[in-house]
Amino acid sequence: AQWDFPDVFHPDFQKYLAEELDRHAEYRDDPWLLGVFIDNEPTWAGFGKDEKYTLALNILSSTNGTETKKEALHFLRERHGALTALNDAWGARFSSWDELADLPIVLSGESLAKAEGDLSAIISLVAVRYFSTCREMMDRFFPGTLYLGCRFAPYNREEVGAAKKYCNAVTFNIYSELPDKHKDAFALASEFDFPLLIGEYSF
After folding, report:
1. Which of 5, 113, 111 is nearest to 50 (CA)?
2. Would you say the C-alpha torsion 89, 90, 96, 100 has a positive or negative sign?
């Protein structure tokens, strides 16, 4: 992929997880093993207030035929039907679905604002695939061991909502002098009702 996020709909993603977890199987029964993180601070979003849809925009702008982009376009086609409906919804002028598959989709300004609902849904789609696959591999190779998520740094509600369904605890890295300065993490934990673990903070 063209970004530091796995192509989660590609079969190699599951294969890679299986190989990595199996490689560490010697620790499975270690009494000091609290749980397992899979990944560290993947790019779900940017740190800026205008970068909340970074993951979806990176997926759509890719040009190397990732399975995740194909799945995102399939989702858009199912959701909107005719391409004219997508053009109307986004204020765009795409000429064909094949064009969307082969060329980078770049959204900005008014089109970006109009596409926010779809971008949010794409992120949810990807997040569910990501966390459910990680959960499946954990259950296979580390049964009974806590799955502690991916250590969020920047994130959105969509990813956290998916994580809480599949992780035993949702983990955050918080770059503040005190971990409780990141009110969003605690507010989401309260709203979504999940165990919260701060994996890292700095001073």
Report:
1. 113
2. negative
